[in-house]
């Protein structure tokens, strides 16, 4: 009997012990907010910038894309996403021309949604995400309203009126005689700032084929950037700035020509060094309009993504084919180069490229003298574009099992300028790389494959 | 008998389930539950048809047993993905599943007994809020199966080396349903994909076992259960997915229910006490992917198949149980058990369809003889799964921490005529 008692006792105590060990384990020991910020302080993160910071995609700023803006993704990795407020706009968002949406997948067809969304959470101002689509560098300090921010923000009759300032900025700030973004940043006592302005100082020129907004002269840019840096430094926050991507690396500029070539609609004639339209009657040189004259389209002339519908109309016979000087492709649909005249000052492409190079020179020198961290997005995009070109359009950015080519629907949204959700995650990861190395921090990278594409679809 | 099975099947229709590693359910008998399934050498109850068909050998008279186990799993998830704030907690919706079982045996000759078992050896049910952070991985998932298992057991003549019994039977997957539902976040607005499938046709497998009692009060048992490959077929619906999807399609999926074997040792150290240790092996590596084949090409998928990698490992369980009949109250039997269950899912492939984890199980049970031939059985199992943190999950997974426990009360009867 004592054997039995011992036996039972043994079993019971073993069971009791195991119950104790497993059953009483503290299941709330997870600390998701592990402090891995290193020397940086993320307690108040503010992002300043333009549409790239705002999370604009597919030609519109809308809630389901804003959720994946690169600053929001970055804030999540900092464990700050709940306090990181953005000026959300209900789907399908606000954007001139309306959001670009998929209406068919195979073959791929997009349409514009003419509906507009409305601001959702205006009561959360001031916003941590001060990305204002359309914002230019001068908007940051806007000394004496030199950039006319006030008029562009508040006067609907102004041709340069931009509805996003009102959405992103406080009314009280816009009521001032010289409102600026800096005041909205400073009042939040930021400890960490990402600053990415300057793209629109050249992009407006590029997207209008050199016919709209003019390029901010490099000297002005330098002056404005230094003034901005002063303002940023005065906040006492750690500041991270971003370079300006070369315009030829965005699909808005390079993609349509490649696409037309792939479709066999146009072809490059290497003996004449001109692009030719492929027709039933043979191939004919394509003419483009350049400052009122017609020139043959050469290797450094890029029909912009905005010329997509023009070429569709050409194919439908609604527009005469651009094979005569008098029916040249309209100037605003082409970013022309200087191969025809060999004069760089005559080339939209060269001018834009020169401006970008000078801007980036300014950014890196101002950053280094102010001890700002630089995220060289220009280099990132350039490397991706080089990979894309050298692989005949097969490869792009390889991450987490993905191959994100720099084309609409992969790294870029259908507008050809703004990244997709996953493109934003790539930018956030590049930001994390920079943070980890500059501040000895240990933020986790984002698994880009887990970020849903979220392509907008038409109803 | 036919009618009885039909009735049982109707009851089974409302059963789903969850919880044992993988999606196996070892709770096939209320008495076995009391000993946490350490039952494959016990062989003194008609539910041996599930645990070891050799136990039928020499089982006397007409025996009937039935019962049901309620499985009440509870899981929470804390997010570590980049899709929502870190640490954000989601609770799985509370679902309780009724998993009944039924067995009958009849002694044909002295040594030969035939029987039939109806039970649900595989199943799972998980349901997460439709707007939760992991909705792209899973919203609702359920698998239900009903197996019918006609079996025979035979006691070999005495060769002078101890008592030997053998048994075997057919395992027929007679009924099955699956439901898979998840959000499709590749498009905005998001849509929902749902597949409701039923077992296309009965699927067959077998089981066989042996019991060996070399000396009195010591029994060794071995049971093998084969794989059963089932095919489910049904309607796939694509809600709120206007571009790239048909409005509906037919979908089918093949799911292989794994093979398993048990090595069991039962010792009766003193009069009235039976103790048993069982090692159960599961061949989960057969479950390498879940592929859904559609009857048409779906542009958004770039084809007509969705493949979810599973890549399960083989796994094992160690089950210990004891039964004591001489408690001092006439007709009362007490049982207890403890088990460790290793889960088959690699960290990378854990997803909310089945937030599996290694777990400890604890049980207690009683039987009370109401009359000489009728007893009622009751048991209670508590399962505590280890907290499981998964990062770097595969494409269909979501990074986070799962915490799971479950309560499994069960009640049944045993009739020995």
Automatic annotation (TrEMBL), chain A:
PROSITE patterns: PROKAR_LIPOPROTEIN. Residues 1-27 form the signal peptide. It holds the Pfam family Lipase_GDSL. Gene3D superfamilies: SGNH hydrolase (3.40.50.1110). GO terms for molecular function: hydrolase activity, acting on ester bonds. InterPro entries: GDSL, SGNH_hydro_sf. Keywords: Signal. It comes from the Bacteria. This is SGNH/GDSL hydrolase family protein. It comes from Fodinibius halophilus. The lineage of its organism: Bacteria, Pseudomonadati, Balneolota, Balneolia, Balneolales.
TrEMBL record, chain B:
InterPro entries: OMPP1/FadL/TodX. Residues 1-20 form the signal peptide. It comes from the Bacteria. One of its GO terms (cellular component) is cell outer membrane. One of its GO terms (molecular function) is long-chain fatty acid transporting porin activity. Its main location: membrane. Keywords: Cell outer membrane, Membrane, Signal, Transmembrane, Transmembrane beta strand. It is a multi-pass membrane protein. Pfam families: Toluene_X. It is found in: Cell outer membrane. Belongs to the OmpP1/FadL family. This is Transporter. It comes from Fodinibius halophilus. The lineage of its organism: Bacteria, Pseudomonadati, Balneolota, Balneolia, Balneolales.
């Amino acid at each position: 009997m004592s054997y039995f008692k011992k036996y039972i006792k043994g079993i019971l105590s073993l069971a009791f012990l195991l119950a104790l060990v497993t059953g009483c384990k503290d299941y709330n020991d997870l600390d998701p907010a592990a402090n891995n910020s290193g020397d940086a302080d993320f307690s108040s993160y503010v992002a300043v910038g333009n549409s790239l910071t705002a999370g604009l995609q597919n030609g519109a700023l809308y809630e389901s894309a804003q959720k994946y803006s690169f600053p929001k993704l970055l804030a999540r990795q900092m464990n700050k996403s709940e306090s990181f407020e953005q000026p959300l706009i209900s789907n399908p968002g606000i954007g001139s021309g309306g959001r670009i949406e998929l209406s068919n997948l195979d073959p791929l067809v997009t349409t514009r949604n003419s509906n507009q969304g409305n601001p959702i959470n205006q009561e959360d101002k001031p916003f941590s995400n001060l990305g204002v689509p359309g914002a230019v560098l001068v908007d940051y300090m806007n000394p004496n309203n030199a950039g006319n921010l006030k008029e562009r923000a508040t006067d609907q009759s102004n041709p340069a009126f931009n509805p996003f300032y009102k959405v992103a900025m406080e009314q009280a700030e816009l009521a001032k005689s010289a409102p600026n973004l800096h005041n909205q940043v400073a009042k939040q006592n930021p400890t960490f700032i990402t600053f990415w302005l300057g793209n629109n100082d050249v992009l407006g020129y590029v997207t209008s084929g050199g016919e709209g907004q003019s390029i901010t002269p490099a000297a002005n840019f330098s002056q404005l950037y230094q003034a901005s840096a002063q303002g940023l430094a005065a906040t006492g926050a750690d500041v991270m700035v971003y370079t300006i991507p070369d315009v030829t690396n965005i699909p808005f500029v390079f993609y349509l020509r490649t696409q037309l070539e792939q479709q066999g609609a146009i072809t490059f004639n290497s003996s004449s060094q001109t692009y030719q339209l492929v027709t039933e009657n043979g191939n004919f040189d394509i003419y483009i309009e350049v400052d009122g004259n017609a020139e043959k389209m050469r290797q450094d002339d890029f029909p912009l993504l905005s010329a997509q519908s023009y070429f569709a109309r050409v194919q439908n016979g609604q527009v005469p084919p651009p094979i005569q000087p008098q029916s040249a492709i309209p100037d605003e649909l082409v970013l022309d180069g200087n191969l025809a005249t060999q004069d760089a000052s005559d080339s939209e492409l060269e001018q834009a490229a020169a401006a970008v190079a000078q801007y980036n020179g300014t950014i890196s020198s101002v950053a280094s003298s102010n001890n700002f961290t630089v995220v060289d997005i220009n280099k990132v995009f350039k490397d991706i574009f080089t990979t894309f070109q050298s692989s005949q359009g097969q490869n792009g950015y390889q991450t987490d099992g993905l191959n994100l080519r720099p084309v609409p629907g992969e790294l870029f949204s259908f507008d050809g300028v703004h990244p997709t959700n996953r493109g934003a995650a790539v930018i956030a990861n590049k930001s994390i790389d920079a943070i980890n190395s500059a501040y000895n921090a240990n933020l986790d990278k984002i698994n880009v494959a887990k970020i849903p594409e979220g392509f907008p679809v038409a109803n | 008998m036919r009618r009885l099975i039909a009735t049982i099947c109707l009851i089974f229709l409302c059963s789903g389930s969850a919880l044992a590693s993988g999606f196996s359910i070892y709770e096939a008998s209320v008495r076995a539950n009391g000993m946490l399934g350490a039952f494959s050498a016990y062989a003194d109850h008609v539910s041996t048809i599930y645990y070891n068909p050799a136990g039928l050998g020499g089982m006397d008279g007409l025996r009937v047993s039935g019962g049901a186990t309620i499985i009440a799993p509870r899981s929470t998830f804390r997010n570590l993905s980049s899709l929502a704030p870190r640490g954000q907690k989601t609770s799985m919706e509370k679902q309780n599943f009724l998993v009944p079982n039924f067995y009958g045996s009849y002694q044909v000759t002295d040594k030969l007994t035939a029987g039939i078992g109806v039970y649900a050896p595989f199943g799972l049910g998980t349901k997460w809020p439709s707007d939760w952070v992991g909705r792209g991985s899973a919203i609702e998932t359920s698998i239900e199966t009903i197996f019918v298992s006609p079996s025979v057991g035979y006691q070999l003549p005495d060769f002078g080396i101890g008592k030997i019994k053998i048994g075997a039977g057919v395992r027929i997957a007679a009924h099955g349903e699956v439901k898979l539902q998840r959000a499709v976040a590749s498009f905005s607005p998001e849509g929902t994909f749902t597949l409701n499938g039923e077992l296309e046709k009965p699927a067959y497998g077998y089981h066989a076992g042996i019991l060996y009692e070399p000396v009195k009060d010591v029994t060794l048992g071995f049971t093998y259960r084969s794989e059963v490959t089932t095919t489910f077929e049904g309607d796939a619906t694509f809600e709120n997915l206007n571009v790239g999807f048909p409005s509906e399609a037919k979908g089918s999926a093949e799911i292989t229910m794994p093979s398993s074997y048990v090595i069991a040792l039962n010792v009766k150290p003193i009069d009235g006490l039976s103790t048993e240790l069982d090692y159960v092996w599961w061949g989960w590596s057969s479950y390498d992917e879940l592929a859904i084949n559609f009857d048409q090409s779906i542009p958004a998928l770039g084809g007509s198949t969705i493949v979810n990698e599973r890549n399960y490992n083989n796994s094992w369980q160690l089950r210990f149980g004891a039964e004591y009949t001489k408690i001092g109250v006439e007709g009362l039997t007490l049982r207890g058990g403890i088990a460790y269950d290793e889960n088959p899912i690699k960290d990378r492939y854990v997803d909310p369809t089945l937030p599996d984890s290694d777990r400890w199980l604890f049980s207690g049970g009683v039987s009370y003889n109401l009359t000489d031939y009728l007893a009622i059985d009751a048991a209670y199992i508590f399962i505590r799964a280890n907290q499981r943190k998964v990062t770097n999950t595969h494409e269909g997974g979501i990074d986070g921490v799962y915490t799971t426990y479950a309560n499994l009360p069960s009640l049944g009867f045993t009739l020995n005529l």
